[in-house]
Specification:
Distance between the termini: 50 Å
Largest sheet: 6 strands, antiparallel
Number of helices: 3
Strand order of the largest sheet: 1-2-3-10-5-8
Oligomer: single chain
Number of strands: 11
Helix content: 10-25%
Structural class: alpha+beta
Mean pLDDT: 82
Length: 189
Amino acid sequence: MTEQPNTPAVSVVRPGEGETVLLGSTRMRILEDGSTTGHRLGIAESVLAPHTPGPPQHRHAQHDEGFYILSGTVRFTVGEEVHDVTAGTLLVVPPGAPHTFANVADEPAVMLSTFTPDPYVQYFRELRDLHADGGTVARDAQLRLMDRYATTPATTPTAAHAGRGTDADASADTSDTSDASDASDRRPS
């Protein structure tokens, strides 16, 4: 069979392939950055180390986020609701919904995340680069990065449900795999 001249290329990412982005104690593997999907979809696999607090609650204005748990248990806090979800569970967060996640368990957790559309994948690359020197990042620099990707800190004080105290306390967390609202005393862990 002959390939048609306008047939799009198919992406195959095998185990161990893909771009690895280290964000503190979380290892993210970018499986699709949108270059194959016309920028309609981004996909990443994240391994959350045990007791990874994750980001403070935040909202996205321009993309949906999906989380499919492959192994372990991940605690999602969506507004005031807390969901401890295990392998085989899918959680979809539409634009505007405040959310965060954490691994409060003693075992690693692995989740597959989707971003529709895909530009948010670049956020993680820039977040890694922002913390590249291992030092602290000023809060205004962190907020500018979030703003470029239409993401804002949630104002609800529900980060305690993710095992971290208040949103202000969460700013000291450094294992961000999604967003962070206060990085003035943070670096990736």
